Amino acid sequence: MANSKDLTGVTARIETSAGNMTVEFLPAKAPGHVKNFVDLAEKGFYDGTVFHRTIPGFMIQGGCPEGSGRGGPGYTIKAEFNDTPHKRGVLSMARSQSPDSAGSQFFICHGDAGFLDRQYTAFGRLTDGEATLDAIANAKTKPGGEGSTPVAPVKIVKVVITRPT
User: What residues are paired with 91 via a beta bridge?
Assistant: First the structure.
C-alpha cells in the first residue's frame, strides 16, 4: 500500500460528456482507496464508463465497467472508514453490504448524506465542477425501481490524474 505522503497533492479531473469535475484526494484519511482510484484511472479503467445511478439531492454513482452497477475490477479492497462527513461534493466508494467489498465503483455526494458517515469510505472532495455535478444528478431517469437509472447516462470520457511536480 502506498504511503499517504506519496499521494499528497494528487488530483483527478473527471472529464464527462456533461462537463468536467476536479477532485482532490484525502490520502491521510484513506490511502488505500486513493491509491486504488488513481491506479485504475491511470490504467484507463474509468474511460468510457457512465454514471449509472443518479439521485438528486443524494449522489451520482459511476465506475462500473458494465454500466449496470454490478461490475468491478475483479477484486475488492478493505474499508477505510474515517471521520470525513459525507457532504455535498465528497467522493466516496460504493460497496455492497460487506464493508470490505469496494472495488471500482464510486459516488460523489450531491447533497449532505450524514447517514453514510463511518459506513462508506470517503476519500476525496470536489474542488471544481459543481455545475457538472448538478447536471448529472438532475438528469432524467427511467421510471421503476428507485428511479435512479438515467435515460441517457452521462459518460466519463476520461479521468486525468495530476501529480504535484
Answer: 108, 124
Pairing of strands 19-25, 59-62: unpaired
* Residue 52 near residue 157, CB atoms below 8 Å: no
Length of the chain counted residue by residue: 165
Give residue limits of the domains in the chain.
4-162
The pLDDT mean for the chain works out to 95
Classify the C-alpha dihedral 61-67-70-76 as positive or negative: negative
Q: Are 93 and 102 in contact (CB under 8 A)?
A: yes
Give 4's pLDDT tier (boundaries 50, 70, 90): low
Predicted structure pTM score = 0.95
CATH code linked to domain 4-162: 2.40.100.10
Rounded CA-CA distance 26/35 in Å is: 10
DSSP state letters, 84-144: ----TTEEEE---SSTT-BSS-EEEESS--GGGTTTS-EEEEEEE-HHHHHHHHTS-B-SS
Give the residue among 156, 147, 165 at the shortest CA–CA distance from 41: 156
Calpha distance 93→100 (Å, rounded): 11
